[in-house]
Amino acid sequence: MGGQQLPRSRSFHRPSRPFRYLVALLAALAVLAVPAVAWAASGFTEQVASARWSTSFQCPDGTTAADGRLIVETDNFIEAGTTPAPNPPLRVGFVGQCPDGTFSWGLVQPAPTQFKRNLTRVRVSGTFANVRDNRGGLHTVSVDACWTGTGPVVTTVNGPGSKRKERSATATATIVFDGNTLVDGAANFPFPAPFIRIDIEK
Questions:
Q1: pLDDT tens track for 187-201
Q2: Which of 44, 62, 132, 197 has the fewest CB atoms found within 10 Å of its own CB?
Q3: Is the Cβ–Cβ distance between 201 and 73 less than 8 Å?
Q4: Dist. CA 69–CA 167, nearest whole Å
Q5: For the whole model, what pTM was predicted?
Q6: Which DSSP letter does residue 153 get?
Q7: Residue 168: which of 190, 146, 151 has the closest Cα?
Q8: Over the stretch 77-112, which tens digit does the pLDDT of each residue have?
Q9: For residue 159, what are the β-bridge partners?
């Protein structure tokens, strides 16, 4: 997803089916969102904030299941010589295991976003209708997420004209799915931890 690092387990156990499905879901969202000009010779700046949650959730049959996985990420790709878009893509992906199989949904939609300097704070919010799940259902999802930088800014120079600035962060979010609160609190999935990042290519 625009340079994001997908979750990597530190154990040698085979990932669960919902986890593997989440990786596939995020990869599909990334294909939809990668800018066509990502390799423009003129260069670019990319602003990213990402966080993950583990949460219980309600299945389509009305039962409650545990350990649903949710990712919230904002990704603003800025071509050289242009100003940052006020409504860059917001990506939200969810996957969980219900008694009758996997339940998942995702969206990639423009959303009002505030990205503060020096990786100090990011805020994004919006309400989105017609979010499709993997069983053909349509839903309304509201998102209000905030990242606050906590650690030092770490700069990595990849090569001439190419560098990354990244900062660890705390993240909180309220996610409402069809009128029911899915998440309301701090990101609690341990890896990767919430972060704020800027990639620069000249």
A1: 999 889 999 999 999
A2: 62
A3: no
A4: 23
A5: 0.78
A6: -
A7: 151
A8: 999 889 888 999 999 999 999 999 999 999 999 999
A9: 162
